[in-house]
Amino acid sequence: MTEERRYSCETAADTLAWINDIIHFLTPYFSSFINPHVVNFFKDQLWENVNAEWIDCLRREPVQNLLLIPSGVVKDHWPASLKEYILKLRSMVFCQEQADINMALPGLQMTSLNRVIAQGMNGKKRHEVEALSAVVSTVAESVRAHAIVDVGAGQGYLAQVLAFQYQHPVIAIDACSHHGMVTDARAERIKKHYTSQMVKSG
């Protein structure tokens, strides 16, 4: 069994190597398992493309063992190729350990969102946007970024906080046109609020 590689994002080169390894690992499975819709998996019997030795082994395993596979838990009696596949896959998972944000970004100051800019957000989303916008703003300022591009912006919550509250030039991109319309409508309401605030203070 090959030695498990340790991936990191400490440098741009490390991050790119990680991304390339993920692409290389997934490429053989695109046509059979990643691109097809779920209905095609059943209609076209795509499970037949799975290694027959793996299927024969796993169909006899207790459910509790199968549920542990995403965590990288393998059994000694499993085929070597299956164990290597699972451990390799597990090694490429992005670490989700919670970091101390104040240690990672000393001096970070999170700003509470007012009710206008937070419109449409539930409590969880509001907390996430407050934290993430502060982090993105701090990083953008530290590298003197001229603009921030939010790819997969959704309904524009993060982009609008960065634009209106932190005064960054932001480009929000999303594949869903409906999200774009929702974002534009929210932006107009937020603009009116900030414009009226400026008039009152002026």
Q: What is the radius of gyration?
A: 23 Å
Tell me the number of strands: 2
Total domains, how many?
2
Q: Cα distance, first to last residue?
A: 71 Å
- Average pLDDT rating: 88
- Outline the low-pLDDT stretches: none
Our estimate of the beta-strand percent is under 5%
Shape by Cα distribution: elongated
Helix content: 40-55%
Kindly report the spatial arrangement of strands forming the biggest sheet: 1-2
Q: In this structure, how is the largest beta sheet organized?
A: 2 strands, parallel
The ordered H/E elements are HHHHHHHHEHEH
Total of DSSP H or I helical runs spanning 4+ residues: 10
Structural class: mainly alpha
Protein name: Protein RRNAD1-like
InterPro entries: Methyltranfer_dom, METTL25, SAM-dependent_MTases_sf
Pfam family, one: Methyltransf_32
How would you briefly describe this protein structure?
With 202 residues, the protein is mostly helical.
Q: Can you put this structure into words, describing what you see?
A:
This is Protein RRNAD1-like. InterPro entries: Methyltranfer_dom, METTL25, SAM-dependent_MTases_sf. Residues 124-199 form the Methyltransferase domain. With 202 residues, this protein is mainly α. It has two domains: 12-91, no CATH class; 101-201, no CATH class. It contains ten helices and two strands; from the N terminus they run H-H-H-H-H-H-H-H-E-H-E-H. It has a two-stranded parallel sheet with strand order 1-2. The longest helix is centred in the last third of the chain and has 25 residues, at 177-201. The model has no long low-confidence stretch (mean pLDDT 88).
